[in-house]
Amino acid sequence: MTTIGRRERRKVQTRQALADAALELFLAHGYDRVTVAQIAEAADVSLATLFKHVPDGKEALIFDDGTERREAMVAAVRDRPAGVSILRALHTFLAGRGTFAVDMPADAQRKRDLIVDTPALSGYQRRLWLRGEESLTAAIAAESGCEPGAPEVRALARYILEIPDLISLDTDPRASLDAVFRLLETGWAGITGDGPASR
User: Fold this and answer.
1) 123-147: string of b/e by CB count within 10 Å (b at 16+)?
2) Mean pLDDT, 10 residues at a time, over the chain (199 residues)?
3) How far apart (Å, rounded) are the C-alpha atoms in residues 161 and 182?
4) CATH assignment of 67-190, given 1.20.140.10, 1.10.357.10, 1.10.3290.10, 3.40.50.1100?
5) Class for the domain spanning 6-60
6) Residue range(s) occupied by CATH 1.10.10.60 in the chain
7) Between the CA atoms of 55, 3, 139 and 162, what dihedral angle is there, to the nearest 10 degrees?
8) SS in 3 state form for 49-65?
9) In principle, which of 21, 153, 176, 181 could form an S-S bond with 43, CB 3.0–4.6 Å?
10) Other Cβ atoms within 10 Å of 77 Cβ, number
11) Torsion sign across C-alpha atoms 109, 111, 117, 119
12) pLDDT value of residue 199
């Protein structure tokens, strides 16, 4: 088991205090009405400390750096059970996250709704997802036997990563997620019958 030193613990605690303060203020007053100075004051840190821990600015305050998400998504592909397709594994992975998850605790739902309803936050979250493109492309290529540079592999990875942004505002995001994966699994012709043979 890895232990971290006092300095690292302090960094983690400060980062968490900033995230907690930012989320509380955003939920109470709305993202656009809260300043970084107010967040720093609520977390009892200086503005310099805030920007040291969160150099990307206000929209990054309630997110981690996306590392956990990237690693979990790659693990969903590489560590999937025998007989489970790459697409099925990714479908299951996305179904358990964010706006697609069911039975979320009330606090998590409030945070999710804040992100979905705030363009700056949803835009930042999309950029975090897209940072995983290289890792996901490599994992899909390795597990499918395709070349990482193959356009099909790159297109699939990019499309998977765009799904949360594409359908998070739908009335029933989970149903939309299922529909998107039906399209990916069967292709357009499998959904509509509109294939080469029908022309």
Assistant:
1) ebbbebbbebbebbbbbbbeeeeee
2) 72 90 96 95 93 88 88 96 95 89 82 90 92 95 92 95 90 93 87 59
3) 16
4) 1.10.357.10
5) mainly alpha
6) 6-60
7) -40
8) HHHHHCCCCHHHCCCCC
9) 21
10) 23
11) negative
12) 44
Calpha distance 39→18 (Å, rounded)? 7
Tell me which DSSP letter residue 196 carries.
Answer: G
Size of the chain, expressed as the number of residues it contains: 199
Q: How far is CA 71 from CA 21, 106, 135, 138, in A?
A: 27, 26, 8, 12
- What is the identity of the amino acid at 142? A
Phi/psi at 126 (5° precision): -60, -40
